[in-house]
């Protein structure tokens, strides 16, 4: 364990805490005492004899001992000096509430560099951060009012937004936190450091992250794998999502797979649940920590309203959740148990005559949840507590649901359509029975669907943890340059990826090359500047004879003269014409300075950016993951025999896609950028019809 990691452990489990500064430091010290912290609380201020009710010392050097935890709220220039003194004293960690550093740019950014240097081995949180809430020991280093209460176990929240980390603690959704940490400017410590320090902590049962950027992707991945192995799910709200604009990239792949796509690929790989809103984060964390992740997407849903049943079915189906048909045996049993006005279906409206009839409902719920489902959901909007009779009936139904799902060993949730229609007492009763009390139908369905990947990824850890790891990112020096299409295809062919038969010739030898190859043919101008030939009019397809080739050359030379007169036509690629592919795919690989290599699969052809049907995987990836990405595309229906068309050999296609990743790995250090667009998928195998390859020269 490094010295900094050791000091972070001290900060998270302190014996004593020092609060340095004026009123903000006083407020934070009061919060710490109110939290029930049993250790020593000291103030540091040269102009105060006491800090509220706490002893105050003139300087850091006068403290009785090097403090494990420090809250620092002094001007930025002073903060640097104080941090240097704390480091020399042997303090543990410092929450630097002080702002005025990198977020201001210029001199502030330079001052932050000095701060990082003088911090040494200190566990420095921030600067420019609200603070740290410790609901395990009560050692709060935070100057503001907050929600939450002392817990033995709960969610650890790490946030790059101070305000976010503040308002989620006041949630009315029954989500308990063990730690809430604002990471601020991340001068010395990033999200990865907090995860590493807490992943083995028995007081943490899950992680909630608000992140805008991660500092060390492979290290984050390694720690996330450990969290997954320990059944501590991670839920992420990613802020600042943006894609690289098509105008700033050379390849089509770049316009599809920007930074946000890489983050999504990272989260998918690691079984991390990504959400879009704070409410989705809270509902997902509640589901995972109370009921646990579902085994798959098959949902058994119960309502006491036909309208609710329709909303559950519609909302869930749009997300990809499945509502299995009721089996014949289960249907027969339910017909005997349900009132005559009820219709057997999934979702099941069990109708109002069964309200409050616990024994009968337990049998109904038990029958359907044992009929091949991965999770069960009961929709209930609770009336106000002053309507005691109605509330009791709702709770009776929920109690029957809890008993049936527990007996069947199926994760379960009770959900209100409107978030506010689920009182705290009823939520607590559900949680005590291991049933997640979810609030808001839309957020509940999102939480269930988003959590279905977790157990699948955990199985990967059991079978082969190395499959999920990411290699260290190599520093790439130099600028990738385009390799002409002929030579690019020769490299792919040598790697076992089929390309069209063809010849690379001078302009005056095109007709002879076409004759030798056999018609019909494709003619392309290649070389520098011809990366996107269609846009330049530098490609013609389906040329049936020599005359058609000659005519096409005249047109192409004329087009280049008008659209790009500076380009020189000195190489022409003549290829066989590939007829009637079953589907066209884009297969691309990018090299990113943070994420390393990434593979993008998409519906291919000239409309690739318009259709935007794509999936991205970080490399290396297994054949299983490649298959998942491929079959996630909307165009995958074409591969499986759409509307009576013959299906292609999916296994052979996956072999070729995997060969692309192996080929790309060979050129990792040369900043490879690859676009195969389109990859023609034929019944007898895929062919790389058009290739754009860029490499840093040897």
Q: Would you mind describing this structure in some detail?
A:
This protein is α/β, with parallel strands linked by helices and 698 residues long. The protein has 4 domains: 3-215, Rossmann fold (3-Layer(aba) Sandwich); 292-453, Rossmann fold (3-Layer(aba) Sandwich), CATH 3.40.50; 501-576, Dna Ligase, domain 1, CATH 3.30.1490.20; 583-695, ATP-grasp fold, B domain (D-amino Acid Aminotransferase, Chain A, domain 1, 2-Layer Sandwich). 39% of the residues lie in helices and 21% in strands. The protein has 25 helices and 29 strands. Strands 3-4-2-1-5-6-7 form a 7-stranded mixed sheet. Strands 19, 24, 25, 26, 27, 28 and 29 form a 7-stranded antiparallel sheet that branches. It is flat and about 95 Å long. Mean pLDDT is 91; it is low at 243-257.
- Report the CATH topology name of the largest domain: Rossmann fold
Provide the CATH superfamily of the largest domain. NAD(P)-binding Rossmann-like Domain
CATH architecture of the largest domain: 3-Layer(aba) Sandwich
**Taking all residues together, what is the mean pLDDT?**
91
Query: What percent of the residues sit in helical stretches (DSSP H or I)?
Result: 25-40%
Largest sheet: 7 strands, mixed
With helices defined by DSSP (H or I, 4 residues minimum), what is the helix count? 25
Overall, the morphology is flat
What is the number of E strands? 29
What is the CA-based Rg, rounded? 31 Å
Domain unit count = 4
Amino- and carboxy-terminal Cα gap: 40 Å
Beta strand %: 15-25%
- What is the structural class? alpha/beta
Supply the CATH class of the largest domain.
Alpha Beta
**pLDDT below 50 for ≥5 consecutive residues: which ranges?**
243-257
Cross-sheet strand order for the largest sheet: 3-4-2-1-5-6-7
């Amino acid at each position: 364990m490094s010295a900094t990691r050791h000091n972070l452990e001290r900060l998270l489990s302190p014996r004593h805490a020092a609060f340095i500064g004026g009123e903000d430091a006083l407020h934070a010290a009061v919060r710490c005492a109110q939290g029930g912290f049993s250790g020593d609380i000291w103030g540091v201020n040269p102009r105060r004899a006491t800090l509220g009710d706490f002893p105050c010392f003139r300087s850091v050097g006068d403290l009785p001992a090097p403090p494990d935890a420090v809250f620092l709220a002094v001007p930025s220039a002073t903060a640097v000096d104080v941090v240097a003194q704390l480091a020399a004293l042997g303090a543990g960690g410092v929450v630097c509430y002080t702002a005025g550093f990198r977020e201001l740019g210029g001199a502030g950014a330079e001052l932050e560099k000095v701060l990082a240097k003088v911090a040494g081995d200190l566990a420095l949180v921030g600067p420019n951060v609200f603070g740290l809430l410790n609901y395990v020991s009560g050692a709060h280093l935070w100057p503001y009012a907050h929600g939450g209460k002392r817990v033995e176990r709960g969610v650890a929240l790490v946030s790059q937004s101070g305000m976010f980390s503040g308002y989620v603690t006041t949630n009315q959704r029954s989500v308990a936190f063990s730690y809430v940490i604002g990471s601020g400017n991340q001068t010395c410590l990033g999200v990865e450091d907090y995860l590493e320090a807490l992943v083995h902590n028995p007081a943490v049962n899950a992680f909630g992250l608000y992140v805008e950027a991660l500092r060390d992707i492979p290290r984050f991945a390694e720690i996330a794998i450990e969290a997954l192995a320990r059944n501590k799910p991670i839920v992420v709200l990613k802020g600042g999502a943006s894609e690289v604009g098509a105008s700033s990239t050379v390849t089509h792949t770049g316009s599809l797979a920007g930074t946000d796509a890489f983050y999504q690929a990272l989260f998918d790989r690691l079984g991390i649940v990504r959400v879009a809103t704070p409410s989705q984060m809270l509902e997902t964390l509640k589901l995972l920590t109370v009921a646990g992740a579902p085994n798959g997407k098959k949902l058994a849903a119960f309502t006491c309203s036909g309208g609710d049943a329709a909303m559950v079915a519609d909302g869930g189906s749009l997300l990809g959740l499945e509502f299995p048909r009721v089996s014949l045996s289960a249907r027969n049993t339910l017909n005997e148990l349900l009132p005559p006005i009820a219709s057997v279906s999934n979702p099941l409206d069990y109708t109002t005559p069964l309200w409050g009839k616990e024994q009968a409902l337990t049998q109904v719920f038990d029958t359907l949840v044992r009929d091949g489902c991965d999770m069960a959901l009961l929709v209930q909007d609770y009336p106000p507590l002053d309507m005691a009779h109605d509330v009791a009936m709702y709770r009776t139904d929920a109690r029957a649901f809890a008993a049936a799902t527990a007996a069947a060993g199926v994760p379960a949730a009770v959900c209100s359509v409107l978030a506010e229609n689920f009182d705290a007492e009823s939520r607590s009763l559900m949680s005590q029975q291991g049933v997640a009390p979810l609030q808001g139908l839309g957020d509940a369905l999102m939480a269930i669907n988003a959590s279905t990947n977790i157990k699948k990824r955990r199985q990967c850890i059991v079978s082969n943890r190395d499959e999920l790891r990411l290699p260290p990112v190599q520093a790439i020096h130099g600028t990738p340059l385009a390799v002409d299409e002929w030579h690019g295809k020769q490299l792919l062919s040598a790697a076992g990826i089929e390309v069209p038969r063809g010849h690379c010739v001078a302009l005056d030898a095109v007709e002879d090359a076409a004759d030798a190859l056999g018609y019909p043919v494709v003619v392309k101008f290649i070389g520098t500047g011809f990366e996107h030939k269609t846009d330049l009019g530098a490609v013609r397809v389906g040329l049936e004879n020599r005359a058609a080739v000659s005519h096409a050359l005249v047109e192409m030379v004329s087009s280049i003269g008008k659209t790009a007169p500076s380009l020189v036509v000195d190489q022409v690629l003549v290829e066989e014409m590939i007829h009637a592919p079953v589907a066209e795919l884009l297969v691309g690989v990018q090299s990113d300075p943070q994420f390393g290599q990434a593979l993008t699969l998409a519906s291919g052809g000239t409309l690739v950016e318009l259709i935007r049907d794509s999936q991205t995987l970080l490399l290396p990836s297994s054949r299983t993951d490649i298959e998942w990405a491929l079959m996630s595309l909307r165009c995958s229906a074409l591969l499986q025999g759409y509307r009576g068309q013959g299906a292609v050999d999916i296994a052979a296609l996956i072999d070729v896609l995997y060969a692309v990743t192996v080929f790309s790995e060979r050129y990792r250090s040369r900043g490879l950028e690859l676009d195969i667009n389109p990859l023609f998928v034929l019944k007898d195998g895929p062919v790389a019809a058009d290739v754009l390859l860029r490499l840093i020269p040897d």
